[in-house]
Structure formats: structure tokens, C-alpha cells
Task: inverse folding
């Protein structure tokens, strides 16, 4: 009896709830967060794993890796809950707000120190990217929709940018598989000194080896030529280098220590997107200096943006959440002053279907780590 009582009192480690609500750092109090998928370098970089100098350089990145892995674990747990929870008939705004609520809890969101890295993209069908519902949007997810869920987490500005495609009708499986395999090809071809042009060519070759039959008609699956992966820096989602998903012309190479979002988009349409529809996404211009603003409304809105988002992307719903109202005229002034950039939805032709998969990886001195890899994709 005494022994039984002692056993009962034995303190267990913190476990995650369902739906998840416990911050990741509380699940891993020693901050030994799960590693991503590790790939050793090949060819000329093979000796990096045994080089003492490279191992020392790896150690210097320890804090950066901890922050990235914490954000990645939050992303995995949020998306895996969303994947099993989302059903046709749900409002898109409810899906986004549920996902964002989980992201805030699991990252233990606090100002611009940690939390959501950018708005939840949930672009549907021919729309490939940069659509999230604005407040009062009544769009409902349908059984025959192809939905791209693209969301980001960050800890101290270390961004995890990762996306997947959600479908309910298995007729879209060839499209989903083409894009998943194309993204995995981009990941496999990435490495120190890898040429971005060659990565794009490899991605395109895999993507365009697929076709899909829809309603008795066969469509080739095309890489969307004007969408790219990109390098990432602290608090900067697009840090200057683009990873093409078609054969490119520029000969630019990946370098040690860089972080990349490897993302690919496939389409049954033209394979090219244009800006279309109501804007929801905005982001402060990273390079913008001081610009005098005459209007008090614009100055106040800029202060709100600086305090709550800094140079991270945000959407109109996030301003509504902060009890901002009647800000569209002030936002227009910030855009015209070059302080804030708008990011309209990016769409292929109506009637086409687009899919996306994306992972964040880091080119460590000794190996490549796909930070956001999970059992799901």
C-alpha cells in the first residue's frame, strides 16, 4: 500500500494535450528539441563530417539550431492536428483562426520575440499563394477543393516556413504527388555550393514528368515558373536568394550556414500566376528607412506594425485582433510611402488546380538538416 502511494506521487514529465496547447519549450525543458532530417554531404563536401574545424563551426550555431528546432516542432504538432481535424463544410476563417491559436500557444507567443511568422495561407484551387480570409469572409471549404496550407512559426525571428496541400477527393492524388516529389527533389539537390539554376532544372524535370486526368481530360502538370523558394534570415522571410522551380539562367550558389525554404508549386493551368483578388497580406519593407508621414493615422498604424510585427508579414485579421479599425486609408499611405508592401493573392487561370509543398532546411557546416520534416511529409 505504501509503495503504491509512492508510485502514484511519482512526477511525470509534461505531455502534450489533444488538441495541442502546451508550449514546446515546456515539453523540452532542457531545450534539446528534436532534430530535423539529417543528410550528409556528398562529393566534394564529404569530408565535412570529420573536419574538426567544421564540427567547431557547427557548435557555434547551437543556439540558432535550438530556436529553429523549437519553431519546427511547434509547426509539426500544429499541422498534424489540423490535418486530422479539417473537414469540408468548415469556414476558411475558422480553420485559419484555429491553426493560429494553436501556433500562438505552442510557440508561447510574445510580441515579436516568438509566435506566428506570417499569415496562414489557405489558397484554394487556381489560387496558389497569399490568400487568407479577411474578417467576415464566408468562404467554406468544399469536398472538391485543393487547399494549400502555408504557415510559419518563429522563435527570436528564426523562421520556419513550411506548407502542404490538403485534398479530400483522391482524383487530385497525381497533382499532390508530383508537387511532393518535386519539393523532395529540391531538398535532395540542395547543399553547400549547389547551383540554384541546377536545382530548378531538377525540380522541373520531376514535376513535369506527371500528368493528371480530370473529368475525362488529361492535363500536364507544370511547375509555376514565377514562384520560387527563397533564402531566409532572422525576421526576414525573403532574404535575397531565390530557388527557381524551373530551369533558370542565373548561376548563383548556396553557401554554408544559409537557411532556405524549398517550395514548389504545380499547376494544371498555364504554369504562371498573376496578382488577383482582395489583398489580405502585408509586410513592412525590410530596407525602408525613415519616411516623414503627415497623417497621424498613418503614424499610429506604423507604430502598431513596428510593435506587433516588426518586419514579419501580417494580415488584416491580425490588425482587427489588435482592435485596429478604419485603417485601410492609413495602410494605403504606408504603401504609397514605400514603408509597407502589399502581397495580393497569386492565381493561375480560373478552373485550374494548383498544389504546394514546402520545407525549411539549414546548410550546417557538417550536414544538411531539413528542420521541418515530419512523419506526415
Result:
Amino acid at each position: 500500500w505504501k509503495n503504491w502511494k509512492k508510485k502514484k506521487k511519482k512526477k511525470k514529465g509534461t505531455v502534450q494535450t489533444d488538441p495541442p496547447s502546451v508550449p514546446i519549450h515546456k515539453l523540452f525543458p532542457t531545450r534539446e528539441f528534436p532534430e530535423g532530417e539529417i543528410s550528409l554531404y556528398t562529393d566534394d563536401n564529404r569530408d565535412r563530417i570529420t573536419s574538426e574545424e567544421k564540427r567547431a563551426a557547427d557548435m557555434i550555431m547551437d543556439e540558432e539550431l535550438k530556436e529553429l528546432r523549437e519553431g519546427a516542432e511547434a509547426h509539426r504538432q500544429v499541422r498534424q492536428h489540423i490535418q486530422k481535424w479539417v473537414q469540408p463544410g468548415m469556414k476558411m476563417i475558422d480553420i485559419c483562426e484555429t491553426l493560429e491559436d494553436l501556433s500562438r500557444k505552442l510557440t508561447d507567443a510574445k510580441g515579436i520575440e516568438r509566435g506566428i511568422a506570417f499569415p496562414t495561407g489557405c489558397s484554394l484551387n487556381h489560387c496558389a499563394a497569399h490568400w487568407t480570409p479577411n474578417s467576415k469572409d464566408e468562404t467554406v471549404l468544399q469536398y472538391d477543393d485543393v487547399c494549400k496550407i502555408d504557415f510559419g512559426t518563429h522563435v527570436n525571428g528564426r523562421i520556419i516556413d513550411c506548407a502542404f496541400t490538403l485534398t479530400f477527393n483522391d482524383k487530385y492524388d497525381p497533382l499532390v504527388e508530383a508537387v511532393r516529389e518535386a519539393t523532395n527533389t529540391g531538398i535532395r539537390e540542395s547543399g553547400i555550393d549547389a547551383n540554384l539554376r541546377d536545382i530548378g532544372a531538377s525540380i522541373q524535370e520531376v514535376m513535369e514528368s506527371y500528368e493528371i486526368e480530370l473529368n475525362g481530360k488529361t492535363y500536364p502538370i507544370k511547375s509555376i515558373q514565377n514562384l520560387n523558394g527563397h533564402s531566409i534570415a532572422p525576421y526576414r522571410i525573403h532574404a535575397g536568394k531565390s530557388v527557381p522551380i524551373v530551369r533558370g539562367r542565373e548561376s548563383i550558389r548556396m553557401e554554408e550556414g544559409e537557411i532556405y525554404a524549398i517550395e514548389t508549386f504545380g499547376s494544371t493551368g498555364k504554369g504562371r500566376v498573376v496578382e488577383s483578388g482582395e489583398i489580405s497580406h502585408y509586410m513592412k519593407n525590410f530596407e525602408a528607412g525613415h519616411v516623414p508621414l503627415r497623417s497621424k493615422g498613418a503614424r499610429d498604424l506604423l507604430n502598431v506594425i513596428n510593435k506587433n510585427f516588426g518586419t514579419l508579414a501580417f494580415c488584416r485579421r491580425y490588425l482587427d485582433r489588435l482592435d485596429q479599425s478604419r485603417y485601410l486609408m492609413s495602410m494605403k499611405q504606408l504603401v504609397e510611402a514605400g514603408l509597407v508592401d502589399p502581397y495580393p493573392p497569386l492565381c493561375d487561370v480560373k478552373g485550374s488546380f494548383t498544389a504546394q509543398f514546402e520545407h525549411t532546411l539549414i546548410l550546417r557546416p557538417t550536414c544538411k538538416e531539413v528542420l521541418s520534416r515530419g512523419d506526415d511529409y
Residues 1-11 have pLDDT under 50 and may be disordered. Residues 88 and 143 are 5 Å apart (CA to CA).
